[in-house]
Amino acid sequence: MSLDLPTTGCRSTPVLKERGQREVFCGLTGIIWLHRKMQDAFFLVVGSRTCAHLLQAAAGVMIFAEPRFGTAILEEKDLAGLADANAELDREVARLLARRPDIRQLFLVGSCPSEVIKLDLARAAERLNGQHAPHVRVYNYSGSGIETTFTQGEDACLAAMVPTLAPSVSRELLIVGAMPDVVEDQCLALLSAMGIGPVRMLPAHRAGELPGVGAETVFALVQPFLGDTHAALLRRGARHIAAPFPFGEEGTTAWLRAIAEEFGVSREVFEAVTAAPRARALKAIATQSAELRGKRVFFFPDSQLEIPLARFLVRECGMTAVEVGTPYLHEAIVGPDLDLLPAGPVISEGQDVEKQLDRQRAAAPDLTVCGLGLANPLEAQGFTTKWAIELVFTPVHFYEQAGDLAGLFSRPLRRKAALRKEAAE
Predict the structure, then answer these.
(1) CATH code for the structural domain at 27-148
(2) Over 60: is that where the pLDDT of 373 sits?
(3) Domain boundaries, the chain
């Protein structure tokens, strides 16, 4: 069960490290997909009205909806130190839990304002646990733009949970990272068909389903931005199954194969389970990637998905990567994808946005993957862009989504071609 590796991958490529101005969303954005995943959790952002507006806009929540997130607004008197922010927070939490008895997990989420006034949410969580446990477990993590980028909110959330997970001596597979339910179901069905189990998920749907963790736990990541969670699980004694990420046919097969080898699944069983979905994935990718072949792509750093996605676009869709930028590069996590990504592109970590824009303009790629803040200006300059945020909010993992993943990249090119044709006519 060996992978077909390129002659020279990018693991040993020197990394261009930049530490300048960056253009990314803050980690609060992760609440939008986490609150949908964790059915008895509530995310309470301790922040400003700007934080509240960001979440409302990102989630598209109607005024009569009852979401599982909210904002404890820090007013001017709080920021000026004229009020006891801790007493006010305790009062707001008590009111929330009295009104929402379904809440079993409460996350206090730090923001830029709470960081600036040095509000100790770790101590607040400990205090509130004393008041509301065992009915409610209170955690804290930071989603502040001072400390986190776009997808690091999920990483900080899951990492905060790991130390509280029950000890376990059972040999279990732990799948780590939030996925849409339809994708999670496909993942579990494939593993079950190979006889792999028991399989636990982090995050779990409910507090009562949280996994245990110990020296017999092996875990596989489905998101490449979980560096702190990865480290926290290793500290608990769990062992990581390193593998390319399950994007596209090749990535999904490699990810499943690494787990299958860990659990002693025979080649015959593996092939029987994966043959049909692999064929569907290959057909779907071929259909959706016709516009991508021979085209050049440039990645600005945004979601930390950039390296696995570049591998997918180059090896499965026939593109050429010019530069692959990522906010943080965790070699222990994305190393297998770097091994598969053919040498050639600049690999950059961090960002100095003006310098990177200069490199992008000089390269004049056919497609630029970037954040919302850069997309419109680049489009105005004639470049074709893909919003990086859409790659996080759209189901893109595993075989059945492989064609949709390719389509997310080919669609902007088709749109540009259609606009040019219309203008010519």
Answers:
(1) 3.40.50.1980
(2) yes
(3) 15-22+288-424, 27-148, 172-278
